[in-house]
Each structure stands twice: as C-alpha cells, then as structure tokens.
Amino acid sequence: MFIVKPLPVPVRVVWRHWTHSAGWRMKVNKHGLADLKKLHRQALAEPLEKSVEPAGKPNHALKNPQGRPSDSGITAQTLTPEDRALFKRAVRTVKPLRPSNIVILPPTPKAHPNVLRQKRQLATGRNPEPLSQRFSDHYHPSQPQWEPGSYLRLGNGPDVLKNLKRQKWPITASLDLHGATLDEARTRMEQFLQSCLAHRVKCIRIVHGKGYGSREGTPVLKDSVRRWLTQFDAVIAFAECNEQNGGAGAVQVLLDLPKTQSID
C-alpha cells in the first residue's frame, strides 16, 4: 500500500523594502523641479546688462554704509552671471523713491547772543555779568505800552500781541516765583530764560503773583518781573494770561529764537 504525500508548495517570501523614513517614500514633485529648471534656462538665455563704473574706483555696492564688506561673505567677485541675472529679474518691478521723499535735516541752529556771551565768559574764566547790572529795578521802556500789563518790542506790529493773547503759540514752559525775594526771582528768571532759548522754547509763562500779600500793599514782584522782561533782548512781547493760566498774577512771554541756517 502506497501513501501519496502532497509535495510541499514553495512559499514566496516578500521582503518589505526598507527606507530611512520607516517604510514610506517621499513623493517627488516633478513639476516643481521642472519649473526651477525652466527658470534657470530663461535666466541664462537673457542678455546681461553691463554695468558701467568709473575707471579706477572700486565697487562699493556690496558694502554697508560704514564702508566695510558685508558679513555674508558675498562680494562682487563671487557673483556669477547667473546670480546677477536672477537678481535683476527679482528687482525688475522695484520703483526708485522719488526725490521729494528725501528729508534733509537742517543744521543745528546758532545759540542766542545772550547764551553765547555767557558761555564765552565762563570759558575764559571770567564770572558772568552780575544779574543786577543786566536787570535794573529803575529801568522803564522808552516806548509806551500798548495796553496795561503788556509789552511789544519796537519793530513788531500789533498783530503779534493780539496773536499772543489768542494763544497762537502754546505755552510749553512755566516758572513759578511765588514766595521768592527780588534777588532770588531775578536769578531764577535769568536762568529760566537762558534755558528756554537754549532749548528753543518759543512761548513761556512766568507766575509772579498778584502781590496781595506784600508788606507795602503793592505788588513788588509783579512790577519787577515785567520791568526785567523789557530789558531782555530776546523778549518780543508779553501780556497778562487769561484766568485759566493765572490771570493778572502771571504773564505769557513770546521769545525771539535764533533763525536756523539755510541750506544752499
């Protein structure tokens, strides 16, 4: 008796293809590579424009404003014709700025003559002129006042005083002399005016009080401050403030600032 045994069926072994990405492959974008190659061929086909530079002068186009080479390591010698062509294609739609958009800053203005005189005296080792000699308590202006409590320097029209009262120029600095003696008020006002000129402050306010608390019963500091202001060269005009800014106890002063130098 014979027993027929079936022959073993060969087993087909399928090995999984191993990749570095755990069994999956990245799909290649053939269209993207084709586009890059097409752009590269177009860049090579375009004629290069020759840049004309003065003879004997180095090319500073790739230097920063301080004149040093760029930190990226790219220089005019390392650029290939392909790089230049690609750069020109990238900036072909860029429009240059109009000359009207260029802002030229004015030079630093000259200081007022009073400020320069004080600086020269300090630089040469001399003491500045005593304040009592510059601001006299017995001085009276030669021209009559336009209105009580106001002053306008000769050479200026009445519209200046009207615009000052209408607050055409905003008050940007203020000095309060309440409780100060005449000598203290004179020194503080002198320093305040010099500082305003140095910082180009056009319109200021000086609070002197109404003088109701003086021993003599008359406003001593009020009259002295206004008399001193008429002796200061940089004062164009002054007038009493409105009630919101002090009324009769304060004056708003318009200063003559030095003119800036014009650019030729």
UniProtKB/TrEMBL annotation:
Residues 67-80 have a biased composition (Polar residues). SMART domains: SMR (SM00463). Pfam families: Smr. InterPro entries: Smr_dom, Smr_dom_sf. Residues 48-81 are annotated as: Disordered. Residues 175-256 form the Smr domain. It comes from the Bacteria. This is Smr domain-containing protein. The lineage of its organism: Bacteria, Pseudomonadati, Pseudomonadota, Betaproteobacteria, Burkholderiales.
